[in-house]
Amino acid sequence: MARVLIIDDDPLICQMLAAKLVKMDCLADSAHTLAAGVAMAQAQPYDVVYLDVRMPDGNGLEQVEKLRLSGAQPEVIIITGMGDPEGAEKAIKSGAWDYIEKGSSIKDMVLPLMRALQYRREKGAAKPLRALKREAIIGSSPKMQLCFDMLAQAAGSDASVLITGQTGTGKELFARAIHENSPRGHSSFVVVDCAALPESLVESMLFGHERGAFTGADRPRDGLVSQANGGTLFLDEVGELPLSMQKAFLRVLQERRFRPIGAKEEVSSEFRLVAATNRDLDQMAADGRFRQDLLYRLRSITIHLPPLCQRQDDLHELTVSYLNRLSQRWGVEIKGVSPDFFDALRHYNWPGNVRELFNVLEQAMTAGGSSPTLFARHLPESIRIARAVDSMSRAAGDGHKAAVITTLANHTGGRSAPAKQPAWPGPDASGMFPTLGDVLEEAMARVERAYLADLMDHVDWDIRRACAISGLSRTGLYNRLKKCGVSRRA
Ligand SMILES: Nc1ncnc2c1ncn2[C@@H]1O[C@H](COP(=O)(O)OP(=O)(O)OP(=O)(O)O)[C@@H](O)[C@H]1O
């Protein structure tokens, strides 16, 4: 018997809908506040939740994701008194099943429910997929579970997949897992790092060339697309592919045929495409920097990997597992971890995600030396400062945060930072106070700039070392250096 929850502050709607659902052999419960509804969805395994937008204690649209991840991961149908296109877009983007107006007849209101129930029945009855091979991917938070569901779906099909997510969230790891779990798993997995393709060589690297096609081409060479024949071609950082190559690639995707440079005949390659990006490709397409038609082709299936700060439940597992892996690799005893170590990790927001976490853990293991236990004191300063700032601002209200961060900015220095500044610059000439948000943003920008300047000096502009220390990817580092205006000193 299907279980349905109606979250609406209007008792009449709840009664009418519930009466209809009971006639349809469903179990129906109601909640008249968002808080009560979310609590019920977390406690009971509902199949579908009807959710009103305007609730006395908040906007229903803000809770769609939480509801989708609760209990039996119900489908959510938005019911609204006043529909608007923006709300509809937001609802669908956050994973709602459908968005309907309350003015519709009760019959129309239950139609999406019937489809959602059918979908869930079919999903449940579908042939169970082979157990996924995903030993390398750590995490069991509800958000990661949704990603694993998508991974299983992608592995079972041959459609193109686009994996999105911030730097260091595991996009390449997922791409490999899709390949290994697919029928192509025994063939080659060819990685193309679109950010590192030299513009002048991009065509020959992708499509190959004949002998004598250009100066220096003393023998014929297969390109990466040919090498992926029968296997998977992984286009990493696909947002960096030059526009001219996007056009050529679109054709290859449509026809699976291309002409190596200098060749008379076209050749074919039967590959499966997986692409990844940390850019907003929709925005790039709107700005004319990415081809819309290519984007359609890339994302038959999309998997979005959430940033680490949104799945704190995974921090513990990732930390323990990586510390064990390090102990094995370095041939040292497994260390204990004190609670203050985990506490510090939880207070940091991990802009470099899992890559940054692993890097920090390596530093902590080194700092721990022969100590059998890792304490917060073994963590890099930046992590411990984040924890101190957080606990101070919680104790004294948010106003303190600005002062602490600004003090940190002064302390951190950086080669071009002023020697000493007051905790914050103070009101402007007319005595106007800026917003706290503006003060924080300015202070963070100053810290970031100072950090990058010092880091690049420290590694003598060795990009590989800078990436390893900061936990940023190459593109991430280049983008931040550009944004902060940090360049090599003459
Ligand atoms: N869930 C995870 N479990 C285990 N290791 C992970 C996980 N996510 C990321 N990593 C590790 O973090 C590092 C970065 O992962 P990966 O290269 O897949 O990220 P990415 O999203 O492709 O980054 P970028 O966009 O910067 O290329 C790798 O060492 C990878 O093994």
Automatic annotation (TrEMBL):
> Where in this chain does the record put each Response regulatory domain?
3-117
- Give the matching PROSITE patterns: RESPONSE_REGULATORY (PS50110), SIGMA54_INTERACT_1 (PS00675), SIGMA54_INTERACT_2 (PS00676), SIGMA54_INTERACT_3 (PS00688), SIGMA54_INTERACT_4 (PS50045)
KW Ion transport (keyword) present: no
Mind listing the GO biological process terms from this record?
phosphorelay signal transduction system; regulation of DNA-templated transcription
UniProt xrefs under InterPro entries: AAA+_ATPase, AAA_lid_NorR, CheY-like_superfamily, Homeodomain-like_sf, HTH_Fis, P-loop_NTPase, Sig_transdc_resp-reg_receiver, Sigma_54_int
Source organism, top-level taxon: Bacteria
Molecular function GO labels: ATP binding; sequence-specific DNA binding
Record's keyword terms, sorted = ATP-binding, DNA-binding, Nucleotide-binding, Phosphoprotein, Transcription, Transcription regulation
4-aspartylphosphate-modified residues are D52
**Name of the protein this chain belongs to:** Two component, sigma54 specific, transcriptional regulator, Fis family
Q: Which organism is it from?
A: Desulfarculus baarsii (strain ATCC 33931 / DSM 2075 / LMG 7858 / VKM B-1802 / 2st14)
